[in-house]
Amino acid sequence: MTRERAVRVGAGPVSLEGDLSLPESARGLVLFAHGSGSSRFSPRNRYVARLLNSAGLATLLVDLLTPDEETFDQRTAQLRFDIDLLAERLIGATDWLTAHPDTRALRIGYFGASTGAGAALVAAAERPDAVGAVVSRGGRPDLAGRALSFVRAPTLLIVGENDPQVIELNQAALELMRCEKRLVIVPGATHLFEERGALDEVARLAREWFLRHLTAAQPRSTLSSSP
Questions:
Q1: Sheet harboring 58-62: ordered strands across?
Q2: Which residues pair with 159 in a beta bridge?
């Protein structure tokens, strides 16, 4: 059984809205990093999250922007490319998870999509002791810049076969990374993995990567009543 609830995540000076799902005896936790104007309601990320939950992995889908920032970004499309800001929010959410009684015993992984993948890698470089694995779906790891060489978490990059520009960007980023790393190209898939079976393959690859690299120090069976 998976317990789910809405949470407010403190990230520096702001409070972010999120959805925490915690299976019984969770084996690790995956924090989703959305990008390119997406949010915690992304149907693709929520689909992947459900499949991770069924494998015993807890998930936190969190909006990295406040409602006011979301409104501004919808007009300007600026904040979705502010990698430093997104990474700062991810670091704040990571610190919240490591302090929260329901999740502090769980090793954390990042699942980043689009620009969120770049932010996830920057945050992983900043929190090497907390972050045990990173998975990127159609992501822009190149946006992590110089942080790429400081990432220690094992990193899986997943790109669609019919997304040639993003493949090139991922290949270039892969060369700069010094951690355990792998690039998987999903046959027949485009950038959003909308083709039949493509997103299932992404979820399968992510599940195997996270189960391999995330180890819960002390499984949790229920959500506590603390905020």
A1: 2-11, 14-23, 58-62, 29-33, 108-113, 131-137, 155-160, 181-186
A2: 185
Instruction: Give the model confidence (pLDDT) of 109-119 as tens digits.
Output: 999 999 999 99
| Structural contact between residues 108 and 178, judged by C-beta atoms closer than 8 angstroms | no
d(CA 47, CA 40): 11
CATH number of 2-213: 3.40.50.1820
Every domain of the chain and the residues it spans = 2-213
Q: Give the contacts of 81 (CB within 8 A, at least 6 positions apart).
A: 115, 143
**Residues found in the chain:** 227
Convert the pLDDT of each residue in 158-184 to its tens digit. 999 999 999 999 999 999 999 999 999
- List helix spans (H) across the chain: 43-54, 67-76, 83-99, 115-126, 164-176, 198-213
Q: What is the pTM of this model?
A: 0.91
Q: Which helix (H) or strand (E) holds 31?
A: strand 29-33
